[in-house]
Amino acid sequence: MEKIVLVYTRYKRGVILKSISIVSHYSHSLINFRGPMIVDLRKRRVNVFALAPDWQPDAVKAVQGMGVRTEGYRLSRSGLNPLTDLRTLWQLWRCFKDQKPEAVFTYAAKTNVWGILAATLAGVPRRVAMVEGMGYAFTEGVGGRLLSQRLLAWVITRLYRAAFHFAHKVVVLNPDDAADLERLCGLDPEKIVVLGGIGVPLQEWPVQPPHTHPITFTLIARLLREKGIMEYLQAARLVKARYPHVRFCLLGGLDDNPGALGRADIQPWLDDGTVEWPGQVDVKPWLAQTSVFVLPSYYREGVPRSTQEAMAMGRPVITTDVPGCRETVVNGVNGFMVPPRDVEALASAMMQFVQTPDCVASMGSESRRLAEERFDVDKINPVLLRILGFAELSQGEGK
Predict the structure, then answer these.
(1) What is the largest CA-CA distance in the chain?
(2) Tens digit of each residue's pLDDT (9 = 90 or more) over 295-309
(3) What whole-number distance in Å separates Cα of residue 285 and Cα of residue 281?
C-alpha cells in the first residue's frame, strides 16, 4: 500500500490549507470538466492553482470566482516541436517552484507528459495524471491507422512511459485504456486507477419529460470524423426516407483536430433538410427536446461526458461498441450498441424508437438510473480526492 505524504502550509490569519496545482491544456475545460472537483477541494480549504495557456477574461472570472488562483504558461496543443515543448517544461517547473503545491494534477496528453516531468523536477510530493481517452493517434480509421497516426502513437507511448514512471497514480476512465497503457507503456498496474467516468452534477442535469412528438435524435460532439458524424448523417437520411417527420440535430463546433470535418462536409445534409446544425450551443434546451441521444463514435473515448449528461436527463442512448462508449449502455436496457461505422445497424436502431416510441420513456428511465449509479460526480469526486491525497480533509477544515 503506497503511503501518501501530505505537507501542511500555514497562511495568514492562522488558516491551515493544503495546495494543488491543476494543469489544463484549455482554460474552459477547468470550468466544464474540473469545476465540481475544484468546488470540493475549496470546501476542504485546499488552495488551488489553475494553470492554462489560453486564459480568456470570462474563464479567468469564472475560475477566480471559485477562489482559485490562475496562472498562464505557453503550450503548443498540436505538433511536436522539441524547443517549444522544452519551453513548456521549463515554464511549468518554474510555476511549481513558485507555487510549492503538495500535489499536481494533469489531464491531457501534453500536460500529462510535461506537467508530470516538471512536477518531478520541482520536487512536488504527489503527482497524478488522468488519461481521458487514448485519442486520435490510437483510433482505427476505415482503412486502419494512417502512418502519421502510428508515428504519433509511437512518440506518445514513449513520452508517457518516461513521464508516468514518475507519477504516483495514473487515472483512466475505462478498462481498455488501462490495458493499453500497461501493454504499450509498461505502466505498473498498481499505479492505474479505473475511475469509470468523470461524472456529472446530477442536480444540474435534471430529468426531463420524454419527448416523442416528433421523435428527435441528437448527436453532441466536436465535428471530428472519428466521432461518427458522417455515419449519423447517412443513417439519418435512411430513416427520413421512410419517416420524414423524424427530426435530427447535430450540436458541436468546427475543430482544428487532424480528423476534423469542415463546413463543406456538413452543408449537403443541411441543404436537403436531413439535419439541423446550430453549431456550438447550450445543450440543455436541445436535450430537453431530444428523444434519443446518439454517439456513433469510433474514436478512442474515455467515457463521453456528453453521453453522461444525456443519461442524467433521462435520454436513451444509441452508441457504438468501442472503448469508453460501451461503458454507457446496457444493450436493450437503456439503449442500443451498434458496431462502429455500420450505417445500416445505426439506422435500424433509430427506427426501433420510431416504431416503438414507448421505449423512449422506459429506456430513458433506465439511463437516469445508470447515471445515478455510475456517473454521479458526488460519488466520483471523493475517489479523486483520495487519489490526490485530500480525502481525509473534512469540509471546512481549518476554519
Answers:
(1) 70
(2) 999 877 789 999 999
(3) 9
Residue 16: the pLDDT is: 43
Grid cell in block for residue 338: 451498434
Burial of 56 (0-12, 13-18, 19+ CB in 10 A): exposed
Q: Give the 3-state secondary structure of 116-181.
A: HHHHHHCCCCEEEEEECCCCHHHCCECCECCHHHHHHHHHHHHHHHHHHCCCCEEEECCHHHHHHH
H or E stretch at 276: strand 276-279
> Cell digits for 51?
494553470
For residue 73, give every residue at least 6 positions away whose Cβ sits within 8 Å of its Cβ, in sequence order, or none. Answer: 51, 52, 53, 88, 91, 92, 95
Q: What is the pTM of this model?
A: 0.87
Query: Which segments of the chain does DSSP mark as H helices, in order?
Result: 27-32, 35-43, 57-64, 82-99, 109-110, 116-121, 147-164, 175-185, 229-242, 263-271, 283-288, 305-312, 343-355, 358-374, 377-388
Cell numbers for 348, please give them: 435500424
